[in-house]
């Protein structure tokens, strides 16, 4: 039995996709032949290198610098200063925005593929792409590649890893093409976006004519069962060998790895993880450390922990692992980070940056959201991290049902007060998950984007709606000098995926 696992365009491509790498490892343990195709990175290289006849000044510049910029985005010389880096990614992004293949309404960038007319949140629109695969701007790239794969490998199954909305149009174009041209091949679809659709209480299975198996959450067991194999999951060490035949958009290999599935906290009322009631599972710390050690063969310059939040129990073991690879990941503000000795140990373990969900600088808002953090602990944590040289990438969320204008101003004041300890910022406006308690409690408009929407539109109970939030962010929040500095320091387009390369810890470690 054999399978071809595809990671379709389009989403950011700084590192190989961990999902299909982990799945391939388990399948191979069970004597299933698995081939991996990162069509996302390959497809972007394909479009970036196409002739471009646009004559506007910025596109002409992007075309002129194309060869050098493609080289620089994958070399440390492109990351010497944030201004130089931002110019490189803006020029590369423009090559996709102005791509001659972005025709018939397609909107492309280094982050996603959207459309002026069709929506990835409408099942009818995705079925349109399945019926008209040539309308996908990546069609000239992937059609001959799929034909070649079918001819040379003759797979029994093809699996699609659908994590992001920007991948939806190409995924369904491929699904439609396979249904017409290779109907004997079984097709499976899994990944984060596929899971969210299936977890929605409004999921109606509109694509059953195209897909033989929909996988929710972890895909190893259901896929093996569908192939007629008993599940024998010994280890999930990602197998990146085939994927690292590609050069990703980073100055060296980033190895992604996750110690958990789901979120150990899983109580935040605003979070889709909680709304979808996703399973939480974690590896024993000793096993995770062994698996990470085995990934050193890929010679990574950076280790990226993919966990929604790295459990404190693992961190306590990890700091004594002897790791020498620079790493970053998402952690929660808790008492561990308020302990200066432990934070020093984190720095010694190679930590160069932490992603931290603050969300609000108003304690009352945090409590009502079940965020489970104390601003006193946050203050101590930020100070400790700054002292040992661990950079902080802080996430803020505006417009939750508990927040109003005064609460948003408290957030601004908290960020300014701790400006010396915050290196990068991510600003987001709250989207209400379709399965959340908020969606049930607040007046809302279902399917305001489409029948596959993961969020609902709602009227804010305190009148703090999107127009007011955007005005506050643009006119008041972002213009504060200290905050403006954090935003300028944050890498454009790739944001947290590349921020670690601009940290003090990484530069010191690299020396």
Give your account of this protein's structure.
The chain has helices spanning 18-29, 39-48, 57-64, 66-72, 82-97, 123-131, 139-153, 168-181, 192-199, 220-226, 272-275, 285-294, 312-318, 340-348, 363-368, 375-388, 405-417, 437-441, 466-477, 481-489, 496-499, 504-510, and strands spanning 2-7, 33-38, 106-108, 113-115, 157-161, 186-190, 213-214, 254-257, 260-261, 281-282, 302-305, 327-331, 351-359, 391-398, 424-429, 432-433, 444-445, 455-458. It is an alpha/beta fold and 511 residues long. It folds into two domains: 2-50 and 115-226, Rossmann fold; 253-510, Aldolase class I (TIM Barrel, Alpha-Beta Barrel). A hairpin with a 4-residue loop joins strand 3 and strand 4. Helix 3 packs across helix 5 (82-97) and helix 4 packs across helix 5 (82-97).
Write the layout of secondary structure elements.
Layout: E1 2-7, H1 18-29, E2 33-38, H2 39-48, H3 57-64, H4 66-72, H5 82-97, E3 106-108, E4 113-115, H6 123-131, H7 139-153, E5 157-161, H8 168-181, E6 186-190, H9 192-199, E7 213-214, H10 220-226, E8 254-257, E9 260-261, H11 272-275, E10 281-282, H12 285-294, E11 302-305, H13 312-318, E12 327-331, H14 340-348, E13 351-359, H15 363-368, H16 375-388, E14 391-398, H17 405-417, E15 424-429, E16 432-433, H18 437-441, E17 444-445, E18 455-458, H19 466-477, H20 481-489, H21 496-499, H22 504-510
Parallel strand pairs: 1-2, 1-5, 5-6, 6-7, 8-11, 11-12, 12-13, 13-14, 14-15
Antiparallel strand pairs: 3-4, 9-10, 16-18, 17-18
CATH topology value of the largest domain: TIM Barrel
Order of strands across the biggest sheet? 8-11-12-13-14-15
Query: Gap between N and C termini, in Å?
Result: 47 Å
State the helix count. Answer: 22
The CATH class of the largest domain turns out to be Alpha Beta
- Secondary-structure-based class equals alpha/beta
Radius of gyration: 23 Å
| CATH H-level homologous superfamily name of the largest domain | Aldolase class I
Q: What count of domains describes the coordinates? A: 2
Q: How many strand segments?
A: 18
Largest sheet, described in full? 6 strands, parallel
Shape: globular
Q: What is the beta-strand fraction?
A: 15-25%
Please tell me the overall pLDDT: 93
Task: Enumerate the spans where pLDDT stays under 50 for 5 or more consecutive residues.
Answer: none
At CATH's second level, what is the architecture of the largest domain?
A: Alpha-Beta Barrel
């Amino acid at each position: 039995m054999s399978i071809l696992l595809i990671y379709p365009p389009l989403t950011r491509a700084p590192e190989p996709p961990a999902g299909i790498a982990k799945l391939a490892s388990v399948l191979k343990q069970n004597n299933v032949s698995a081939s991996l195709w990162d069509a996302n990175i390959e497809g972007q290289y394909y479009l970036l290198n196409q002739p471009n006849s646009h004559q506007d000044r910025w596109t002409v510049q992007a075309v002129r610098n194309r060869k050098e910029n493609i080289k620089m985005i994958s070399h440390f010389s492109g990351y010497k200063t944030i201004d130089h880096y931002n110019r490189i990614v803006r020029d590369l992004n423009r090559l996709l925005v102005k791509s001659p293949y972005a025709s018939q309404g397609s909107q492309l960038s280094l982050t996603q593929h959207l459309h002026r007319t069709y929506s990835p949140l409408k099942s009818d629109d995705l079925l349109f792409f399945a019926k008209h695969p040539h309308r996908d701007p990546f069609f000239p790239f992937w059609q001959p590649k799929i034909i070649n794969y079918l001819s040379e490998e003759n797979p029994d199954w093809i699996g699609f890893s659908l994590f992001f909305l920007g991948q939806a149009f190409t995924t369904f174009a491929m699904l439609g093409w396979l249904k017409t041209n290779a109907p004997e091949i079984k097709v499976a679809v899994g990944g984060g976006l596929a899971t969210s659709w299936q977890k929605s209480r409004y999921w109606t299975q509109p694509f059953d004519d195209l897909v033989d198996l929909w996988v929710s959450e972890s895909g190893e067991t259901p896929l093996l069962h569908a192939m007629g194999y008993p599940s024998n999951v010994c280890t999930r060490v990602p197998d990146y060998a085939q994927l690292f035949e590609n050069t990703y958009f980073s100055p060296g290999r980033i190895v992604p790895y996750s110690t958990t599935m789901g979120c150990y906290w899983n109580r935040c009322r605003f979070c889709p993880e909680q709304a979808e009631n996703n399973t939480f599972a974690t590896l024993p710390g000793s096993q995770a450390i062994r698996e990470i050690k085995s990934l050193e063969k890929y010679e990574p310059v950076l280790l990226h922990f993919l966990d929604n939040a790295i459990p404190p129990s693992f961190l306590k073991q990890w700091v004594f692992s002897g790791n020498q690879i620079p790493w970053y990941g998402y952690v929660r503000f808790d008492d561990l980070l308020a302990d200066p000795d432990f934070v020093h140990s984190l720095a010694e373990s190679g930590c160069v940056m932490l992603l931290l969900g603050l969300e609000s600088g108003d304690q009352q808002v945090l409590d009502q959201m079940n965020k489970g953090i104390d601003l006193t602990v946050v203050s101590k944590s930020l100070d400790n991290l700054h002292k040992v040289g661990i950079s902080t990438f802080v996430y803020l969320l505006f417009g939750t049902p508990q927040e109003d204008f005064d609460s948003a101003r408290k957030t601004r004041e908290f960020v300014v007060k701790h400006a010396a300890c915050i290196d990068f910022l991510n600003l987001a406006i709250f989207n209400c998950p379709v399965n959340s308690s908020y969606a049930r409690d607040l007046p809302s408009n279902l399917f305001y984007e489409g029948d596959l929407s993961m969020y609902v539109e709602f009227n804010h109970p305190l009148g703090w709606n999107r127009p007011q939030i955007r005005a506050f962010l643009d006119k008041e929040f972002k213009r504060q000098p200290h905050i403006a500095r954090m935003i300028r320091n944050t890498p454009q387009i790739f944001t947290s995926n590349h921020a670690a390369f601009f940290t003090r810890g990484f530069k010191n470690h690299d020396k």
